[in-house]
Design goal:
This protein is α/β, with parallel strands linked by helices. It contains 22 helices and 9 strands. The protein folds into 4 domains: 211 residues, Rossmann fold, CATH 3.40.50; 85 residues, Ubiquitin-like (UB roll), CATH 3.10.20; 85 residues, NADH-ubiquinone oxidoreductase 51kDa subunit, iron-sulphur binding domain (de novo design (two linked rop proteins), Up-down Bundle); 43 residues, no CATH class. It is globular and about 90 Å long. The termini are far apart. The structure holds flavin mononucleotide and iron/sulfur cluster (SF4).
Length: 465
């Protein structure tokens, strides 16, 4: 099976081993014999799509950077990796850090960046230490710094520790955080290629995206484009977690059937149980039902066809005994906690969804809660500065839509109506209302609120409540 990043070479994380396996030869070829345009063209040919969640074409993104050197340009390498269920970039830091560094240097050359920042979440000390050491070694060996391989190309690289917030993985929040400001996402436009970090042209790429680049340049864009599903080619580092026998990171071509990934690589579902739900790409992606899992292929286009997406390829497997309300409460609490609070729909809506879900779990839910949750989610979706709003809304909306029965079971049957509707109905039945209003007024009220169950009204007026 082809491996682009996590190759089966012992001690590949050591510089000598990486070099003796052809490491930094591609960087040499690039800076001594290729133009920046040629590098970008090769990446475009490969059809590499960003591995940070949004699947944006990498070559195209690089081509947005302005040409010329009037302004300093920067590359941000996104290693924040804080989405629940995502744990693949740290595997690159541990097992093949120099391939990522080489990829970031090739990207810097292609875009004319004077420096790149490797942004890692503050709590991830282990990987910060690894990367600080690796970057220092690469400087020492002359791969980073002035006149790399005797060429005109000079660039710097810094490892930057975040303070530990999921929102700082969002590209514009990451840049604010780098600048020492609060990690608030910025309103776009302007886009980072025009106004990025320090107000200068900037590109942000995920660690896995950049780690693919040396192999793409070495073997050619067409080679990479021929791996896996042509619409979303290459390999992916699938981080499989949850109720499987062998959780872990598996590098496999895109388009691999989900059940093959679960059964042949992750050792199958624990205890031979059935699958209830799988989240295919980190906690924010719409979940899949058991039936959907049976035939789905793991690439972004196939998942989009059934209303989900590949995200970070963090595959969370839940067996038949999983309490989906508890799962959704946990996920909702995470987004509520991590919302930066700038946008009202996200700040208020995430807390609202969390509280309603808790209420349902405590047996105090109302039948109207489920539709209300979907409505709150839909009012967050697309109405916020950054995609954290969508990330919070999708799991709630789609888990309820696909597994409504599970939620319904926890809601007491009696309680049906909203307070406001109850008041209108009481008014409609009252003698004053009937005598004071015309027939058409009565008809209008009936049309507006006619979906309220009659038996509840009967109970109310027979003095049961
Ligand atoms: C709330 C939030 C958190 C994010 N966290 C990360 C992250 O940890 N790592 C990452 O690469 N991208 C993350 N992203 C996506 C980035 O904004 C950006 O799209 C990505 O880094 C671009 O790299 P790519 O084109 O190589 O995928 C996040 C987005 C949002 C909205
Ligand atoms: S969507 Fe949420 S996290 Fe993103 S900017 Fe708005 S409030 Fe902040």
């Amino acid at each position: 099976m082809v491996k682009v990043i996590l190759k089966d070479i012992p001690d590949l994380h050591k510089l000598e081993v990486y070099k003796s396996n052809g490491g930094f030869e591609t960087l040499k070829k690039v800076v001594t014999s290729m133009s920046p345009e040629q590098v970008i063209d090769e990446v475009k040919k490969s059809n590499l799509k960003g591995r940070g969640g949004a699947c944006f074409p990498t070559g195209l993104k690089w081509s947005f950077m302005p040409k010329g050197n009037e302004k300093p340009k920067y590359l941000c390498c996104n290693g924040d990796e804080s989405e629940p269920g995502s744990f693949k970039d740290r595997e690159i830091f541990e097992r093949n850090p120099f391939q990522f560094i080489e990829g970031a240097l090739i990207a810097s050359y292609a875009m004319g960046c004077v420096a790149s920042y490797v942004y890692i979440r503050g709590e991830y000390w282990k990987w910060i230490n690894i990367m600080e050491k690796a970057v220092a070694e690469a400087y020492e060996a002359g791969f980073i710094g002035k006149n790399i391989f005797g060429s005109d190309f000079s660039t710097d690289m810094y490892v930057h520790k975040g303070a530990g917030a999921y929102i700082c993985g969002e590209e514009s929040a990451l840049m604010n955080s780098l600048e020492g400001k609060r990690g608030y996402p910025r309103v776009k436009p302007p886009f980072p290629a025009a106004v990025g970090v320090w107000g200068q042209p900037t590109t942000i790429n995920n660690i896995e995206t950049l780690a693919c680049v040396p192999e793409i340049i070495k073997n050619g864009g067409e080679w990479f484009a021929s791996i896996g599903d042509p619409r979303h080619p290459g390999t992916l580092l699938f981080g499989v977690s949850g109720h499987v026998n062998k959780p872990g990171v598996y590098e496999l071509p895109t388009g691999i059937p989900l059940m093959e990934l679960i059964n042949d690589y992750a050792g199958g579902v624990k205890g031979g149980k059935q699958i209830k739900m799988v989240i295919p790409g980190g906690s924010s992606m719409p979940p899949l039902t058991r039936e959907e899992c049976m035939n789905i292929k793991m690439d972004n286009e196939s998942l989009k066809e059934i209303g989900s997406a590949i995200g970070t390829a963090g595959v969370m497997v839940m067996d038949e005994d999983t309490d989906l309300i508890k799962v959704l409460i946990r996920i909702s609490h995470f987004y509520f906690h991590e919302s930066c609070g700038q946008c009202t729909p996200c700040r208020e809506g995430t807390g609202w969804m969390y509280r309603v879900l808790k209420r349902i779990d405590e047996g105090k839910g109302r039948q109207s809660d489920l539709d209300q949750l979907i409505s709150v989610a839909e009012n967050i979706e697309g109405n916020t500065i950054c995609a954290l709003g969508d990330a919070a809304a999708w799991p709630v909306k789609w888990t309820i839509r696909k597994f409504r029965d599970e939620f319904q079971k926890k809601i007491p049957k009696e309680e049906v109506t909203l307070d406001v509707k109850e008041k209108v109905h009481a008014l409609r039945k009252s003698p004053e209302y009937i005598s004071n209003n015309t027939e058409s007024d009565n008809k209008m009220v009936l049309e507006m609120f006619g979906n309220v169950r009659e038996d509840v009204e009967e109970k109310r007026f027979s003095g049961d409540e």
